[in-house]
């Protein structure tokens, strides 16, 4: 099957970023969310990012217009029913994702491929609510999706080689570097990354060092471009907590979320997207 039309489910940070990348790569994109307002906000952010690139001289205005013309929006899953490829990028809640895939399975063509941008939830488990186990996989983009090169391609228990090959082709057309991993809690990226972030939060929580010193040590000592607390703010503290909860449930004590992380999420300090996390971002 030749992938021409991609349905992106979720117009938030990840969904909007993926939609932009797909449209830049020449794909016909349908960007969906649960309300017209969410879709409008997500689409507006794509336009803002592209306009900034025009102002900076990185792309021509005609190119911006071409990219924008490749994106249609909808507030109904029905709007994605003829997509060749689905990329789900909604909140990291298994029950919500399963309901979406169950509905899409009933309306999309049998040959359509389903993928999820989940950070940690079982691909095999999500596929069970559909009748297309072999055409179901993970397509885990990094944040921000329009910058980061990696796409973690996750093979479920019954994902076919053909499906993996087609997803890798799509990722490469998007100028990404796809890396295949097997279905396991947190896959590779978050199974390795989240304990570092969580232990960094514990260091802050226990008064081992200040936020700035924790980040400086990892940047200067481990050659990381961004400190773990800065990175947590970029990812979103709510996302970090959701991923850690999944890992903790499956892999136990090593991944127990730090109480400080729980407290900050409960208090609405979610990082860059809320204007405050471990650092402040309000202008």
Pairing-aware structural class of the strands and helices? alpha/beta
Total number of helical segments? 11
User: What's the overall geometry?
Assistant: globular
* Alpha carbon gap, first and last residue: 47 Å
Largest sheet: 8 strands, mixed
Taken as a percent bin, the fraction of beta residues is 5-15%
Order of strands in the sheet with most strands: 3-2-1-4-5-6-7-8
Stretches where pLDDT is under 50 for at least 5 consecutive residues are none
Radius of gyration: 19 Å
Q: Could you estimate the helical fraction of the residues in percent? A: 40-55%
Give the number of DSSP strands. 8
What is the succession of H and E elements? EHEHHEEHEHEEHEHHHHH
Mean pLDDT over the full residue set: 96
In short:
The protein is α/β, with parallel strands linked by helices and 283 residues long.
Describe the structure.
It is a single chain. By secondary structure, the chain is of the alpha/beta class. The protein is 47% helix and 14% strand. It contains eleven helices and eight strands. The protein has helices spanning 13-24, 36-55, 61-69, 94-107, 123-127, 161-173, 189-205, 211-221, 228-235, 237-251, 259-266; strands at residues 5-9, 28-32, 71-74, 85-88, 113-116, 136-141, 150-155, 177-182. The protein has an eight-stranded mixed β-sheet, with helices on both faces. Helix 5 (123-127) links the parallel strand 5 and strand 6. The longest helix has 20 residues, at 36-55. The radius of gyration is 19 Å and the shape is globular. 43% of the residues are buried.
What layout of secondary structure does this protein have?
Layout: E1 5-9, H1 13-24, E2 28-32, H2 36-55, H3 61-69, E3 71-74, E4 85-88, H4 94-107, E5 113-116, H5 123-127, E6 136-141, E7 150-155, H6 161-173, E8 177-182, H7 189-205, H8 211-221, H9 228-235, H10 237-251, H11 259-266
Parallel strand pairs: 1-2, 1-4, 2-3, 4-5, 5-6, 7-8
Antiparallel strand pairs: 6-7
